[in-house]
Backbone:
């Protein structure tokens, strides 16, 4: 089962492509991290996935259907927009009533249990909650809808470290309990490192790399050694830097690295993401001496 | 019941850290046959990690014959690692100490000793695999 498939997907605002040539094929059951700098196109991709935007080019299907194609599709996908919006003037109980009215699959018991565990009284106004509590309320509403896919746009960006941790704990608990697929974005990979098992790196409106975290970590290596301008054809260069005598590559390869001249080290997920972010500026500045 | 923790600076993947913590607890006798491991939900709610990470760790432990999953109930310890090898630790440690003393006499500082140990350890491990 595929949770999200995009083919040559693009979205244009005026003359600017916010997302371009996006190809994705994400299996269900993953917690998918969408990482990239601010303005890279993360929110655009998420809005396309939940049906709030229509593509300018290409196709997108979510859980096998066109996003926003009808009430049944809307019920299967939950969306927590940026800054975890709630209605400041409404009480938590009002939010639950709204949730029950708007969502056919609403699980009121789940919502109430969760809020009780968090110590959030139903009569409190959303406007009086702390940022962390408001985020937890928005998450509760998203989970109680009982979606098959929950999409969250930068849910922890505005939270302090403790609230961030508590939010991700709640999200992972829900993912474990409900067999939920999750797509969440962040401009910081460190926020997502422990929670996601599938990663998409988006830079300058384009997908730089996407795949299962474990596979990405197993196929990317840092090579350090004597100056070298060419690498074997099966080693895709992600980034390269040279001094007069030394070369430093980050490469992607399925095969083993036989050349004994290299010191091969593993990459952390953060290094891997940074290498791809760097690539977008690096390729233009770097002389084309490295064979791809 | 054991409580898991994660060290971000260890360089080990979270899944491997969980596996090692169970093995370690078994070796030290902190976990015994019949003990229950925390449920997947409990672990992810505590550590804020991906549920698949915990599932993978538990599957690996199951594959090693150390634990068994009882559907709908939980995962239980089925073996122990606190065996005869504990007795060998003392003499091995003594030998290692003598080796360390020799290394220092030869002029190696701590970093050099660690580097020498780790490269030898790794190349020996690789030879074993090959």
Residues:
């Amino acid at each position: 089962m595929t949770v999200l498939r995009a083919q040559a997907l693009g979205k244009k605002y005026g003359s600017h492509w916010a997302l371009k040539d996006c190809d994705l094929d994400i299996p269900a059951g993953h917690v998918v991290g969408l990482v990239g700098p601010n303005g890279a196109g993360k929110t655009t991709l998420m809005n396309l996935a939940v049906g709030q935007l229509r593509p300018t080019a290409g196709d997108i299907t979510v859980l096998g259907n066109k996003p926003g194609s009808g009430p049944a599709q809307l019920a299967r996908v939950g969306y927590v927009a940026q800054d975890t919006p709630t209605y400041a003037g409404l009480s938590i109980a009002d939010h639950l009533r709204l949730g029950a009215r708007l969502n056919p699959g609403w699980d009121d018991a789940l919502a109430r249990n969760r809020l009780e565990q968090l110590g959030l009284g139903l009569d409190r106004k959303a406007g009086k909650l702390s940022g962390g509590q408001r985020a937890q309320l928005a998450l509760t509403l998203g989970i109680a809808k009982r979606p098959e896919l929950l999409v969250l746009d930068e849910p922890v960006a505005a939270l302090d470290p403790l609230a961030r941790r508590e939010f991700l704990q709640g999200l992972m608990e829900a993912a474990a309990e409900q067999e939920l697929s999750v797509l969440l974005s962040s401009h910081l990979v460190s926020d997502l490192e422990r929670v996601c098992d599938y990663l998409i790196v988006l830079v300058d409106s384009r997908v730089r790399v996407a795949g299962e975290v474990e596979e990405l970590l197993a196929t990317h290596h840092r090579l350090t050694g004597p100056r070298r301008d060419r690498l074997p054809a099966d080693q895709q260069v992600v980034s390269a830097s040279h001094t007069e005598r030394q070369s430093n590559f980050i490469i992607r390869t399925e095969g083993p690295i036989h050349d004994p001249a290299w010191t091969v080290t593993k990459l952390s997920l953060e290094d891997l993401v940074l290498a791809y972010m760097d690539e977008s500026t690096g390729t233009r500045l770097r002389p084309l001496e490295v064979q791809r | 019941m054991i409580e898991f923790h994660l060290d971000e600076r260890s360089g080990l993947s979270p899944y491997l850290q969980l596996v090692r913590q169970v093995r370690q607890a078994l070796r030290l006798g902190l976990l015994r046959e019949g003990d229950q491991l925390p449920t997947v939900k409990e672990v992810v709610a505590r550590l804020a990690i991906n549920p698949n990470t915990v599932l993978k760790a538990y599957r690996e432990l199951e594959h090693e014959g150390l634990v068994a999953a009882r559907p709908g109930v939980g995962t239980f310890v089925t073996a122990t690692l606190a065996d005869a090898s504990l007795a060998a630790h003392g003499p091995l440690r003594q030998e290692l100490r003598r080796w360390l003393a020799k290394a220092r006499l030869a002029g190696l500082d701590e970093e050099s000793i660690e580097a020498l140990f780790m490269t030898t350890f790794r190349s020996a491990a690789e030879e074993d695999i090959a």
